Amino acid sequence: MQVPDKDMSSFMGGLDRLVQGDVDSAIAQLTRVIKADPGYALAYFNRGLAWRKKGDVVAALVDFEKAIKLNPRLTDAYLHRGLVRKRKGDQSGALADFEKAIELDRRCAEAYCHRGGIRRKQGDLAKALADFEEAIRLKPDLVEAYNYRGLVRQAQDDLSGAVADFTEAVRLRPDFVEGYYNRGLLHEARGAFQEAVADFSAALGHNPRLAEVYANRGLALLQAGKEAEAQKDFDQFYRRKPEKRYQLDKRIWELRRRRVDPTGP
Exposed, middle or buried: residue 160 (CB in 10 Å: 0-12, 13-18, 19+)? Predict the structure, then answer.
């Protein structure tokens, strides 16, 4: 069924509000469309997007499932239901949805990317890498695919390849915090503390509320011999995550002991 002409303005208005970030108005307008035509799959799908953006994953899941029931070939509904299932911890359900999206549309780069993300968590790095490669081939500006591929390359000890992927991710999206953070962790692990500090600082510049980034920047500063600056970051972490103070203190103690006795364990 198609949305009646008299409610087309509500449907298009709902989409406009969704794009503009006015989620509540989008939900209200799309709900009016659904009441006028309960068989209109795209209205449920777009309202599901609005619910997901609002943070109500339960309502989003209900709408995506209704959209799929009305139109079993709606690729994007499987993709976004998969993302909701993944967030809720239903990895097998999410994987099934991403695979269905690929079955319906072999050019759905996002489905390959997110299927690869699940395969990476399952430890199947070869298949995960193949998915990320395909996602990038289909959509060369898909930031998340570069980030995921970087993590796989890092796990496979292809460190230069991992750095290249994280670098491409932040080039494509300069405010992509995960890219800076992951590249910073890699620099820190390689002993490139100045580069690590720069990446952690860039991540915090885009989101200053990230406690773990303060901790890791502090550790990089500590290893670079900048004790006073490191302590400031540790204090930021303690304020945000007091329950994790012991773990960080243990790591700091280990690093300081290593500096005193480099031959120790």
Answer: exposed
Per-residue pLDDT of the chain (265 residues; tens, 9 = 90+): 444 444 676 678 777 878 888 899 999 999 999 999 999 999 999 999 999 999 999 999 999 999 999 999 999 999 999 999 999 999 999 999 999 999 999 999 999 999 999 999 999 999 999 999 999 999 999 999 999 999 999 999 999 999 999 999 999 999 999 999 999 999 999 999 999 999 999 999 999 999 999 999 999 999 999 999 999 999 999 999 999 999 999 999 999 998 766 555 5
Assess if residue 217 is contained within a domain: yes
Query: Which residue has 């995921």 as its token pair?
Result: 148
CB-based contact 16:23 (threshold 8 Å) = no
Integer-rounded Cα radius of gyration of the chain: 23
Residue 235 lies in a domain: yes
Residues 6+ away with beta carbon under 8 Å from 63: 44, 45, 47, 48, 51
**Could you identify the residue written with the tokens 């709408």?**
63
**What's the CATH code of the domain at 205?**
1.25.40.10
Within-domain flag for 209 = yes
Tokens of residue 262, six digits: 């480099």
Label residues 202-215 b or e (16+ Cβ within 10 Å = b): bbbeeeeebebbbb
- Which structural domain range is residue 198 located in? 180-265
Please count the structural domains in the chain. 1
Residue 229 lies in a domain: yes
